[in-house]
């Protein structure tokens, strides 16, 4: 069975949390595509060469979740040759036998436009920045500024900008608990699985 769930949306909206829960519940493989861009940004040097030569060890670095790694990721993610180098791996993952859920920015629009379910997970910038601040700490105003700046860069780039696919279902998690957000997403997937 090839069954792809595409989960896109801005930073700290809950994409990863929802995607992992869907993967567990429905027995799907999960790929956090943001990790690929974070690893390219963290590797330094020529980003295109980094993307072409990405290794499992690059993806296992323990500094990939920081704000700085997120910012570096969104800078290299605006380079078309970096995106191109990462496309086939993501497409193959999306089409794997047994089904998959991928979360990122362009899964429903570019990587897998034929996905069976497309979710656009969002929340207000204030809620998202607060969630990220709970994870990383530091100066809350600075976390908000970095989240907003990164979203603007992701929405404003020419290649594969962050935007909902025409057929994506919006899941606004601003006022939802994790359980409520997962339940909404799971109901949409269950409806498609029949
Ligand atoms: O993957 P993405 O950056 O979109 O977000 P995430 O890592 O899944 O979620 C960011 C943080 O928000 C995590 O600490 C989640 O536990 C939390 N979260 C939440 O508090 N309420 C939700 N409805 C969803 C996520
Ligand atoms: O977890 P969070 O939403 O904060 O970020 P992420 O999903 O790890 O993505 C980090 C950065 O990688 C994003 O800000 C995007 O610039 C880039 N990205 C992308 O361009 N396309 C994707 N499919 C996934 C991430």
UniProtKB/TrEMBL annotation:
GO terms for molecular function: kinase activity. The keyword ATP-binding applies. Residues 5-40, 62-189 form the Cytidylate kinase domain. Keywords: ATP-binding, Cytoplasm, Kinase, Nucleotide-binding, Transferase. It is found in: Cytoplasm. Gene3D superfamilies: P-loop containing nucleotide triphosphate hydrolases. InterPro entries: Cytidylate_kin, Cytidylate_kinase_dom, P-loop_NTPase. Transmembrane segments: none annotated. The keyword Cytoplasm applies. Its EC number is 2.7.4.25. ATP binds at residues 9-17. It comes from the Bacteria. It catalyses: CMP + ATP = CDP + ADP; dCMP + ATP = dCDP + ADP. Belongs to the cytidylate kinase family. Type 1 subfamily. This is Cytidylate kinase. It comes from Pararhodobacter zhoushanensis.
């Amino acid at each position: 069975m090839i069954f792809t769930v595409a989960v896109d949306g801005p930073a700290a909206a809950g994409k990863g949390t929802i995607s992992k829960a869907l993967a567990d519940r429905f027995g799907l493989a999960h790929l956090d595509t943001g990790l690929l861009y974070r690893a390219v940004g963290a590797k330094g040097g020529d980003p295109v060469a980094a993307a072409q030569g990405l290794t499992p060890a690059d993806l296992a670095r323990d500094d990939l979740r920081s704000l700085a790694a997120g910012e570096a990721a969104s800078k290299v993610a605006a380079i078309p040759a970096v995106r191109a180098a990462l496309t086939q791996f993501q497409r193959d993952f999306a089409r794997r036998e047994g089904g998959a859920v991928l979360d990122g920015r362009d899964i429903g629009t570019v990587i897998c436009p034929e996905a069976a379910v497309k979710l656009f997970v969002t929340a207000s910038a204030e809620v998202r920045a607060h969630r990220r601040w709970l994870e990383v700490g530091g100066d809350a105003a600075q976390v908000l500024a970095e989240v907003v700046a990164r979203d603007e860069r992701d929405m404003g780039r020419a290649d594969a900008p962050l935007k909902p696919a025409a057929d994506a279902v919006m899941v606004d998690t601003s006022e939802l608990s994790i359980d409520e957000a997962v339940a909404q997403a799971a109901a949409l997937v269950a409806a498609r699985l029949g």
